[in-house]
Amino acid sequence: MQHLFRAVAVLFLLAGVGARAQSGGVPLTAEDRRATVERAAELLAERYVFEDVGRAAGTHVRQRLAAGAYDDLADAGAFADRLTADLQSVTHDRHMRVRPRRPPPEGAQADPDLAFAEGMREMRAQNYGFERVERLDGNVGYLKFDYFGPPERVRETAAAAMHMLAGADAIIFDLRENGGGSPATVQFICSYLFGERTHLNTLYWREGDRTEEFWTLDDVPGERMPDVPVFVLTSNRTFSGAEEFAYNLRTRDRATLVGETTGGGANPGGGFPLGPGLTIFVPEGRAVNQVTGTNWEGTGVEPHVATQAAEALEVALPLAREAATRHREASIAAAGAAAREMRSQLERAEAAAGAGRPDAAADLTSRALRAAVDAGVVGEDAINAMGYRYLGAGAHAMAIAVLRFNVAEYPESFNTYDSLGEAYMEAGQRDLAIANYERSLGLNPGNENGRRMLERLRAGADAAVGTGQ
Predict the structure, then answer these.
(1) How does pLDDT run across 225-264, given as a tens digit for each residue?
(2) Positive or negative CA dihedral for 321, 325, 330, 336?
(3) Contact partners, residue 32, CB within 8 Å, separation at least 6
(4) Are strands 305-306 and 285-288 parallel, antiparallel or unpaired?
(5) 182 and 151 in contact (C-beta within 8 Å)?
(6) Which domains are present in the chain?
(7) Which one, of 158, 112, 101, lies nearest residue 133 by Cα?
(8) What pLDDT shows up at residue 10?
(9) Which residues of the chain have pLDDT under 70?
């Protein structure tokens, strides 16, 4: 629970990067301020990713405390701002921030579990940061989301958004107000945009002197879009995990960035209680990109097309529409070529079947359909219809070859087995017909056609046994 609570605290901390800490609450005493500075110095020495820098920052704020720099700061928000500025003057790390904790409701006691539940409920009410997904003119997909939420919570929402973008000829990701979040969710969304397994990012953690690699996932719900042109809108508020998303795509030449140079925070970490009503975010690791060997800490991610953040969408749209037109034309041409090649291969398969070489026909058919599926020319329904056309023409060997491929490609579809069962039945191969209808009913007990065909086949088998055939 502590790990999850820290994860929620991190998300809301990052969403407020650059904002002044809120004032209010019980005034801080001199002892409160002293204890807070001491605890901050201890945490930095113990956990900051660069130990020597952490110790130097701790020494600096202790010296500032001794010099009376915080004596007039009884207000928690003002004290948090001053302490943050002093720490950042040494670390130059924008992730490192001191902030007041959100006070519990009046009369309630601080409860980490309730705070966790409240944070989760707030994220859900925000649709986990996903604000807008739509198709713009020119078949350009547009997705705006403002943080990368915990993967176990946001996965379905993110997958639904990516499903809405499937079929777009270009995609714009609007990260101008995205403050970062979970690297696993960055990994999840990036995985839709690559066709081959790709090393996106590595995180080095001081604790345990360990590294954690993030590669594109082998499986994602829905359709990958490895060839669709991608545009990312950025601002100086784009931060942390949102910067990683942009940097991952930029270093792999997978996207065009439009807008402003991003905030420059590449050191992940966690939130820790610091004193009366205060928390600190301590960067405990650093990002290492496989292509550049470094990251965007302190420099930000530079856009390809520099413009003010407020104008980024207006600037990106004509670029995206032009790219969408090129992608659409190239896709149509490739699909046409793939369809012609499929027909040519199927004609060879038909000739092999006509010459009494069913194995050769099946091999040629499988290769033809494999290439066509990979090219997006055909899918389950089109292949099923093709099989029935062969069946209607009496070309049983070709019908079986086509429908066997469909079963292999879509093994969880009851209809593929039903159709193959019918082809075997028409070809007089009763046992194989029975086996496929049984498999179809196993996947869908409500398949009444399959049930009727199976009863007919079994009745025929019983009659044959009874007559001694």
Answers:
(1) 999 999 999 999 999 999 999 999 999 999 999 999 999 9
(2) positive
(3) 275, 276
(4) unpaired
(5) yes
(6) 2-119 (no CATH), 128-323 (3.90.226.10), 332-466 (1.25.40.10)
(7) 158
(8) 44
(9) 1-25, 102-112, 461-469
